[in-house]
Amino acid sequence: MDVPFEPWSPAFVADPYPAYAELRATGRAHWYGPTRQWLIPHYEDVSSLLRDRRLGRTYTHRFTHEEFGRTPPPAAYEPFHTLNDHGLLDLEAADHTRIRRLVSKAFTPRTVENLAPTVRRLAGELVGALVERGGGDLLADVAEPLPVAVIAEMLGIPAEDEERGRLRPWSADICGMFELNPSEETARRAVQASLDFSAYLRELIERRRKDPGEDLISSLIAVEELTEQEMISTCVLLLNAGHEATVNTTVNGWWTLLRHPEQLAALRRDPDGMLSTAVEELLRYDTPLQMFERWVLDDIEVGDVRIPRGSEVALLFGSANRDPARFASPDVLDLTRKENPHITFGAGIHYCLGAPLARLELTAIFDELIRRAPGLRLTAEPQWNPGYVIRGVNELLVEV
Predict the structure, then answer these.
(1) Which structural domain, as residue segments, surrounds residue 374?
(2) Residue 344 belongs to a domain with what CATH number?
(3) Which pTM was predicted?
(4) Which helix (H) or strand (E) holds 377?
């Protein structure tokens, strides 16, 4: 049976939700040949498998590539894999537990609380500049600069360092490898970004060893139990994961609001009462990370489908967040939705460490735009980027 899943189709990327409904209606696990993955579309299955220790983000802690029936990555990709494989998102078992425990000490609720004034100030400055100009590109002018500036502030990257302006391009090039079947050019760019970003962080870590500050890098150095590579990989992951959710939820969220004028009008009338539930609903309604992949370390069953060890499952977050078995009227945007257990930030041991910071940033951006740009409107219909896994529009041109 043909699977209604076309991640390289612009029409599918623009609106994957009808295909997800068909996937949910026709089964709990679907084999997709082009990526050699099992697609998992139902909320309960996705939620359960995120917590199932028979699956992992990696398999190399238990098997060689050959034992697992997989081909080792090309040697030329080694800088990317060294960087990626030492980060929290792709670690399992004891290493993940150890590093998450150590990083959590430097990434406490107090850290986020202390960042709140900075986040609000930056959001105010960015939105204020947009309003003063009478509009612009919400993506480039507001959504992208805020989380990158916040992460740079957290890490202690000096404002005068020219590399500060390269953080977003580096991150974009590295994240290209998380798309399905990335091209050789994508891999080349990811490898070069991995080398450049790592070299810069290595030099910055050395500076902080000699002259520690109040920043996250200094805190990670003080932990002492982290290797230098683990520190570098952690910092890169915080940037990559720390801005993608904010950027795409901001821009996709405003594109959604502008297509639901009655919901936007209600939010403008009562931002204090609705903003927190509105942010959660926008995270659910148009999920910034559509898919999360896991390796099957021991045989599992999903419904009546046996999925053997060595397989890869694609957990469809976007489909799970629109599953009518879990959400009432899931295709309806309801900014007052009270019960909203979306899985946009994942679940289990890989639940997003930066979720509180992402919520803080999103709340600040939406609050500033609602209050200071009450007439914000679209000037051109946006086009979707070709990427499916990390899904967003290429710009959002507005006037105020």
Answers:
(1) 10-399
(2) 1.10.630.10
(3) 0.94
(4) strand 377-378
